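Note to self: the last two entries modelled the partners one at a time, which told us nothing about the interface. This time every component goes in together.
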Amino acid sequence: MMPEWLNTLSWWQWGILAGVPPLIVSLYFLKLKRQPLEVPSTYLWSRTVEDLHVNSIWQRLRKSLLLLLQLLAVLLIALALGRPGWKGTQLAGERLIFLVDNSASMSTEDVNGRSRLGESKRRIGALIDEMDSGEVAMIVSFADNADAVQTFTGDRRLLHRKLKAIQPTNRSTDPQLALRYAAGLANPGRQANDARDTQVADALPASLYIFSDGGFPAVKDFSLGHLEPIYVSIGSESAHNVGIISFAAERNLERADQLQAFSRIENGGAVDAELLVTLRHEGNLIDSQRHSIPAGNGVGVTFDLPRDLDAGVLSLRLENASGSGDYDDNMAFDNVAYTPINPPRLARILMVSHGNDAWELALTTERVQQLADVAVVKPSAMTSESFLQEAGSGAYDLIIFDMCSPPEMPLCNTLFLGAKPPGDEWKAEPFASPPYFLDANGTHPLMQLADMTGLLVAEGFKVVPPQGGQTLMEADLGAMLAIAPRRAYEDAVLGFGFFSYKDGKASEVLTNWHTRPSFPIFVMNVVKYLGGSRGAFAMKPVQPGHELRIRALTPVETVTVKTPAGDKIEVFREAMGSFVFSQTQQQGVYEVIEGDQDEPAQRFAVNLFNHRETSVLPQEEIDIDHEKVAGTLSRQPVRRELWKWILLGLLGLLTFEWYIYNRRVYL
Amino acid sequence: MSTASPTLLSPELLAQLERMELVSRKVFRGRMKGERRSRRKGQSVEFADFRNYVPGDDLRFIDWNLYARMDRLFLKLFLEEEDLHFYTLFDASASMGFGDPSKLYVAKQLAAALGFIGLCRADRVKLEALGASRREGGPVLRGRSSMWRMMDYLNSIQPNMNVSLQQGVKEFCIRNSGKGILVLITDLMDKAGYESALRLLVAQQMDVYLIHVLAKEEMQPELAGDLKLIDCEDGDEAEITVSRPLLQKYQQTLAAFINGAREFATKRGMTYMTATTNTPIEQLIGNYLRQRGLVR
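The predicted structure of the combined assembly is written out below.
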């Protein structure tokens, strides 16, 4: 490494400095202070010195160690003033923010035998050690949430300690919250409406170091402000990982008495994989399949379950093709998935109608009866005490209101046919003319497999759902079917009825839908989706760390959730009737015990099931606020100056000179 | 650097010196009868030689046996016993005052010891400091009773007689023409050189002993740093920067100086001996001088 020179003096200043050494030499010889000493005779000394007078200048120099040391000291000062330096690297910025990704993919062990999180911590530790005095740093860890590990401090020991305490998680990745937190601390703002409020601190530029493998979508609706993002890509481009991104048990559509297990396996690494996919029930092997999955591809795997299987926990595991054990890749977390088989439970559906033969007929098919227990009441029953009690206690999973509306919304899902829910949240704008069907959202579970071609509607209204709702069926005059969440439930509103009623009897036909093949499919979708059961096999899968709203099957005030580790956690009913459970960090099957029952009423599974986390190849750049931030070194080239070291050497030299002078050391 | 000591010779040393005597390699003529043989033929019992009878000689010394054989008259000659002249000449210049103990002190000790031996043997002892001849010469001493006078004289000498070696020896030789043993005690630190002075002594045909006195500080100087050496006799200056090579060179110069003096003296029949101030006087007298034959 060749040193570089930075000239700090002008030519005449260098001239003055160059004249100093000869001046020292001349002064040294001209006026060398010698200590007088009386001796008996200079006879021998004179003869001695004479012999050494050959090349006297050099002999004097050789004898004068102190002179040489002083000249060397001047040389070092001149050298230091030249500010020599070489190319080094340095942290960028005085304020540093370290965002540490500790999501599931950061557990991938593909960096010199270390996990990506471990590598991130090692690199951050090295950066902390390079901090100059006056620099402060902050550490924030993030997965799909953010944790302020340490606020701005210059205490390096504290930073190291907090850094070491960061633990890996099994959660997905979303840096949004972490970025907002960092921006909030780095760029304190003022309230827009209060002129008296002043900034707590001036907004100062800060260097934002993001240590991640980039496995998250583009961050939108976020302004970097004074943050200077530096993305440090962690991970190997040759990482190897195969993971399960979905796993569920369903009843065979063609054969109602048979269960099937469905899963999707993806190869998110850079290496083709050949492996064994094994299915177990309560730990007992049921079946296994061998699959070859090229890098970057996925495969769907289906297992037929034995007929006598009606409850328990199914586990899907990836194993080596040789059957020698768990599949060996860089991230093991997504190599196993769980799903429970809940005891069969019929959905409880109530239809409030004057008499809708089409619906009643559709709801009484053998197929629906296998899934739901349907009751029909007249609209006049909505004011009865029993109805109000049952509707208000969650006794039903779904209430269908046909051309009528309850005084208040029940504690369950609802479907309104030709009517809107009470209140002002939903809007109904009557069509001026018969609407013409345009399109349906076939991806929504309610509209799956329902071909709406040929649908005719005589009259109806445009459905305007409240905030958060989505349109499922669109006509030329507006939405005809929409669904919107209502706390723990969902409400669907069909903007037209099937029949008009007069004197409690159907009088006119308002649509031909009930004659179309899509109608029974739609009814089945309603039973499955809004009825709250998907074959009553499992609740919706939950991702680690996410909260879950549990709907009790019985009107109890508390439920007890048993985690995969065996811990029992009591959860109380919320005001809106559901139970919110958020301690879902562990992967596995949780059991929900209602009230004082001994057996679990239902089970749910927590699995990662995240395509981005399974795809472990590190991203070369990330997108923040529409700004592409390429992966870079954690340091930036800078000039490393040596003058401090030279002056330190000078100090040592002066100390040595003092030692020489006082101890009369000879050479 | 006190050069005067109340007791130059300890009682133990005096007892040792009483048993010694000065030895001369040559037989010299003394003025008075002493305990030594003399070349002069006198009236003693020791036969020396014959000579022809001359009318007026003492008839008691005619060798009648030789007359009977040779029918000629011959006179017997006998050696006559005479006293030894012992001279001690010591350097009292300023350079002799250097050292601890000073070189002059050691010189005085040597002079006193040798003088005491001579006094005990009824030799004629004369002690003199170089340059003292200008003012007054040293006392001539004889017999043990003169001991105190010798000590008084020695104690009165101070290292302030800055006279060159050659000049001091010359003045001594002019005033002291007798033969005998001469012990010259000096440091030979004369910038004019010692050669001419020693030649003068050789010309006196005395039995010369040269005791080269050097201080231990001169043998192993403990100097350091940048110094300006000032000669205590003539004020001459020499600037030096002490270093290991310089000290090594000084040792070489000193050794060459000593060897040169030894060689010069030995070639001219003088007995040379080096004495340092850290050598005990008993060792100097009992070993060194005995080895060189000055005492026994």
